[in-house]
Amino acid sequence: MLCGARRSAGFFTKPRTWESCQLVVKKETYIPEMQAARGVGIILVALGHGEPVREAYPQLFSWIYSFHMPLFFLLSGFFSSRLARDGPAVEAVKTSLRRAFNLFIPYLSVSIGYSAMKYFASALAKRPVSLANLPQDILLYPGNNPALFLWFIHALMIMWLLAPLLSRMPAVLLAPLLVLSQMHSPDARIFGLGNVFHFLIYYYLGLLAAAKREEFLAVMGRWTTCGAALGLFAAGYLLTLGRGVPGLSFLIAVAGSIWVVSSCFACKKRLPMQFLEACGKRSLQIYLLQYFFIFPLYLLLKSRGVDGEWIVPLTFCAGLLLPLVLCRWVFPHFATLAFLIGGCDLEGQEGIRPQNTF
Hints:
Largest sheet: none
Number of helices: 16
């Protein structure tokens, strides 16, 4: 796989090879528990994207979607600490632009590739592809992108661009405004700004946690944190079943996210940490590639009359494991393919190894 593109007189030059990335980040900056939390997050994403999980397992779908995307944005904020460092704002902006550009490449490639697949199977697709509107749907309206799941990637690119500004604004002013965004998010579809505004609070909480890194990690390692977060999450979730309570939904999402992170610290001896870390390291690749396996497998099994209760676990396994197969046995031998659809690893992230981007 490839990692961050090297700087040159142009915007970037030839990316590093998969093997040369391995020693870029010092071992002492690596936090296995946070990586495992990202692994839990991508597993929940793959399960939530398994087809037809909403119809076959509605309670499971509701539970996953109560906190799994806030968890991912919070972790993304935590791992964006380089963009929020003290220092020249110009350098932070340059880094943000470079990272967003490197993520835009697989966003565009996967959008086009998945759109082509859906176009040739338009009779079976839930959302047929409109070629006339495809460029603007991909670039301007991620909510209309045939690869709808990429809305997260689009939103993350915008948040990276905002990170230097967010980190320099007083928390006492910004945090209340972002909390209020949970009560009402504008329906701004251009650039997916409605989603950006709604989820920005979780990304910002991740930035705040990174700013107080040692204290945050110490709190996450306590059993009391894990138990309290689980209790709050369970109580809030049960109270909101069948009812929409925006403010309480925010607390549920935060409690669920903290529960996952703290569990990876407090319960690490009881968890399959090696597998969770592996999923966390390849979280971008799993996210980008999952539907190339989920969609055709779902159509195949559905055409054979397989019950939805069986299709869900099969599409979940395909969406989670087959991208890992590509990362392990295909991408190391096809650098261009790895760069275009697997995502260029971005440079300089705190606390992670170079296979990561989220």
